[in-house]
């Protein structure tokens, strides 16, 4: 049975650091054990298996990302809030690429409901309330924004924008402006 506590937290944090170094997909109990200089069997007192390790890293990443996004949103509204939220995601992805990938790990329903993913959704919906969207339009907008943020960051991290002008930052700023305009003029349901 996996134990909770400071030692387990250190194991998960070490797993998150390893994910940033080698990529989230490469994180396994044996890879983490090598990194920590311990036997793999000793990790199983803190995590049940590879899936449990990845779930715990994902939960950590979601929490860190929610904390950053929350701090970035403080006192902001409208386009400023949208840009601050998006920039928090983009900055986190560059600083912690493995953890950012972990934040997209599919969690089971119970883990997802108890995760900081709920905070992400609430923050995004709070931003969207400033755009006078219906509940259903907000759901569509949350999915659109998440897709744009994750897609852009993924392409940018893979070097997809490094061989042409204008600079990626200029495109990012233009895209956020276009998203703001779309949200202000969201098409009515037909």
From TrEMBL:
Pfam families to which the protein is assigned, alphabetical = TetR_C_33
From the UniProt annotation, which stretches of this protein bind DNA? 28-47
State the UniProt keywords alphabetically: DNA-binding, Transcription, Transcription regulation
- Does the keyword section mention Transcription regulation? yes
The reply to whether DNA-binding figures as a keyword in the UniProt entry is yes
Domain HTH tetR-type per the UniProt entry, residue ranges: 5-65
Q: What is this protein called?
A: TetR family transcriptional regulator
